[in-house]
Amino acid sequence: MAARKNVLYLFDVDGTLTPPRQRISEQLRDFLLQQVQPRVRLGLVSGSDYGKIVEQLNGEDVAAKFDYVFCENGLVHYQNGELKSKQSILNHLGETKLQKLINFALNYLSKIELPAKRGNFIEFRSGMINISPVGRSCSQAEREQFVVYDTEHRIRAKFVEALQDEFKDINLTFALGGQISIDVFPTGWDKTYCLNHVAEAKFDEIHFFGDKTVPGGNDYEIFTHESTLGHTVTSPDDTKEQLKKLLNI
């Protein structure tokens, strides 16, 4: 096989390499590491924290095999399994603004009724706040129930509109994250942030694969960025098929 090209393939996780919040299949994992990685460098960029990514990849040993793992949009940066850098939304916003955001979100959540509400509605991460109307403790069946309800009633979209109106004087971005949540982060701390970490590598091409690539989705900014070649995928199987065509595998 020819030497590995100076090219980076970046992947969203949920809906791209795994079903939402589920684990990667052994077949796709082996395909990426055994057939794709010898040809190009591999990176992951997700809004999730490191623990969730490791769980979805079936272990820290698997995560360490990727050239780059960008957690929380790249605010937490791993390279070859080693933590390289970490940003803090608390340091950036300050406690007063952060509490104003959390209090507003909790008040808003208390006034909406859903088919189910569970626990862990607001998750504080290093580089962002994740807000889930149904609660991240929901079961898979409750998650799927919320997806249907949200599609019909625009629960998250209306929530984003309320957040944008309330915090229009604070430089924050509100993006639909995955199936059940909203990611809140300082403007510019979207998935394009991870590109800062690979600038020195001077890749000839950077390809990005994601499923939330329309405006308002948390893949949109990196999908449309001038430094990337964007690919919209519909499932892990679709990701694999697109890779086969791109690399002639």
UniProtKB/TrEMBL annotation:
Transmembrane segments: none annotated. Alpha-D-mannose 1-phosphate binds at R21, R125, R136, R143, S181, D183. Its cofactor is Mg(2+). Pfam families: PMM. It catalyses: alpha-D-mannose 1-phosphate = D-mannose 6-phosphate. Its main location: cytoplasm. Its EC number is 5.4.2.8. Keywords: Cytoplasm, Isomerase, Magnesium, Metal-binding. InterPro entries: HAD-like_sf, HAD-SF_hydro_IIB, HAD_sf, PMM, PMM_cap. It is an enzyme of class 5 (isomerase). Mg(2+) binds at D12, D14, D211, F223, T228. Coiled coil: none annotated. GO terms for biological process: GDP-mannose biosynthetic process; mannose metabolic process; protein N-linked glycosylation. It is found in: Cytoplasm. Belongs to the eukaryotic PMM family. Involved in the synthesis of the GDP-mannose and dolichol-phosphate-mannose required for a number of critical mannosyl transfer reactions. Homodimer. This is Phosphomannomutase.
